[in-house]
Write a structure and sequence with these properties.
Layout: E1 6-10, H1 14-26, E2 30-34, H2 37-47, E3 51-55, H3 63-73, E4 78-84, H4 88-96, E5 101-105, H5 109-141, H6 150-162, E6 169-172, H7 179-188, E7 197-201, H8 207-215, E8 216-217, E9 229-230, H9 232-235, E10 240-244, H10 251-263, E11 265-267, E12 274-276, E13 280-285, H11 289-294, H12 300-306, E14 309-312, H13 323-337, E15 344-345, H14 347-355, H15 361-375, E16 380-381, H16 393-396, H17 407-421, H18 426-433, H19 437-449
Helix pairs in contact: 2-3, 3-4, 10-12, 13-15, 17-18, 18-19
This protein binds adenosine-5'-triphosphate and magnesium ion.
Magnesium ion (MG) is lined by residues 179-180, 244.
């Protein structure tokens, strides 16, 4: 018979110890014994019991001391104390220290069995809770990163390796592969996690603004600089600065960045004061930076400074093992956001997701699932809810079957397909379908909610079909 759990019996009286251990063994538990508190603490470490059943009065470390120390060292262990009749106060004290329950001596067999069973159940729950908390903690550390495919798992292993160091990291990958997510994971996995993670998209700003954003500026250093302003470097002090699309940094700014990487110092734009900060740089690019170097558009010395370690994220099409779990992950997220109950994907929908090459990578998959969740009316995502590009060619023109389909289904098919063909423009689709744009909007609202929605203002449910 499988053991019902592990119990450590602690009593300074050898006979009592042996008898109790024997009884509990008969009840189906695995038992061990210890003669005092200190020996018990050692045994807790080695034996890893679910429940400790301990006498209160013992030489050396007594029962109360054992509960106190044991609870701190092994929070999942459940303690039950045994106390002689008439010394209830010490049992109460033990409960205050964290004991779960107490038994009075001489022991009543029925009570012993009952209290032990309850303590065991409590221990099981506590362990389960600790386990869940541990899983949550691990998840948070890697920020909900889905990594089922061996290639992605390899990326995460590298992330775990480089995160705790202060090395500059270059994250490479096509657009939408998850570069920012990985950069954040590196920050969270470092000892800088309590300090800020600051991001800057280097492609979004012209040269002068980019420098001022990075390094800050002094009052009056350029038109519009009305006061002194600190830059992202200063904001990120103690933490991490994420330079997105780093290939887009103009050459003069590259020089300043290089100097920072060499000396860890910089000056505000228009200022002389030399500032020193402790910032780790993570850069990202979806371009082939080495080619940029070869073409003279990116400084080689800067490239090597940024690229102490490079993390390359493969495109989604070369790690298809991630597609089903990612799709399921986004389904859950967007179903929750939209208040919908969706169980999963139809077989052909999942097959289409797996076959599609995903040029926009994870971001494109995320958008496709979000859209499908909005369009879904039943309890799962069907092929027809996916963007046309994702649907295999031979199935694209599949109409709802006639006879067989209802007018509502045909209408829905016509509206959705026309809208898609018109690039989402309601007015164009309205012209093609020969109905009003307002009716399309009303219908879309209905499809989104999954239930007939309140009509838009100026339109009552009765006249909506007469438009
Ligand atoms: N492995 C993953 N698990 C869960 N979500 C992911 C994963 N990879 C990417 N994502 C999600 O996909 C989206 C795109 O990721 P992210 O913004 O990090 O990509 P990117 O490479 O920085 O894209 P771009 O080059 O366009 O800036 C985000 O919403 C991100 O949360
Ligand atoms: Mg990005």
């Amino acid at each position: 018979m499988a053991s019902r759990g592990r119990i450590l019996v602690v009593d300074d009286e050898a006979n009592a110890r042996a008898a109790l251990s024997e009884i509990l063994h008969e009840e189906g538990y695995t038992t061990e014994t210890a003669a005092d508190g200190f020996k018990a603490l050692k045994k807790i470490e080695d034996f890893d019991p679910d429940v400790v059943l301990t006498d209160l009065k013992m030489p050396g470390l007594d029962g109360i001391g054992l509960v106190e120390k044991g609870k701190t060292a092994s929070p999942a262990v459940v303690f039950v104390v045994m106390t002689a009749f008439g010394t209830i106060e010490s049992a109460v004290e033990a409960v205050k220290q964290g004991a779960e329950n107490y038994l009075t001596k001489p022991l009543d067999m029925k009570m012993l069995v009952l209290v032990t069973e309850r303590a065991m159940e409590k221990a099981r729950l506590q362990r389960e809770n600790l386990r869940l908390r541990q899983i949550l903690k691990e998840r948070n550390a890697l920020g909900h990163i889905i990594a089922q495919d061996p290639k992605t798992q390899e990326v995460l292993r590298l992330v775990e390796q480089v995160a705790p160091t202060r090395a500059s990291v270059l994250v490479l990958g096509e657009s939408g592969t998850g570069k920012e997510l990985i950069a954040e994971a590196i920050h969270r996995g470092s000892n800088r996690l309590k300090a800020p993670f600051i991001r800057l998209n280097c492609a979004a700003l012209v040269e002068s603004l980019l420098e001022s954003e990075l390094f800050g500026h002094e009052k009056g250093s350029f038109t519009g600089a009305v006061g002194r302003r600190e830059g992202r470097f200063k904001q990120a002090d103690g933490g991490t600065l994420f330079l997105d699309e780093v290939s887009e940094i103009p050459l003069p700014t590259q020089v300043k960045l290089l100097r920072f990487l060499q000396e860890r110092t910089f000056e505000r734009v228009g200022g002389n004061e030399t500032l020193k900060v402790d910032v780790r740089i993570i850069a990202a690019s979806n371009r082939d930076l080495r080619r940029q170097v070869a073409e003279g558009r990116f400084r080689e010395d800067l490239y090597y400074r940024l690229n102490v370690v490079s993390v390359e994220i493969p495109p989604l099409r070369s790690r298809r093992g991630d597609i089903p779990p990612l799709a399921a992950f986004f389904l859950r997220r967007y179903a929750e956001e939209n208040g919908k109950r969706l169980d999963g994907f139809s077989e052909d929908a999942l097959a289409a997701l797996l076959a599609y090459p995903w040029p926009g990578n994870v971001r494109e998959l995320e958008n496709a699932i979000e859209r499908a969740v909005v369009l879904a009316t039943g309890d799962r995502i069907e092929l027809s809810h996916l963007p046309t590009t994702v649907i295999p060619e031979q199935r694209r023109d599949e109409m709802p079957r006639v006879p067989g389909a209802s007018i509502a289904e045909l209408e829905r098919f016509a509206i959705l397909r026309t809208l898609e063909a018109c690039g989402g423009s309601t007015s164009k689709a309205a012209t093609v379908l020969g109905i009003s744009a307002r009716k399309i909007q009303y219908k879309m609202h209905e499809y989104r909610g999954g239930v007939p929605a309140a009509p838009p203002s100026g339109l009552t449910p009765d006249d909506k079909d007469e438009e």
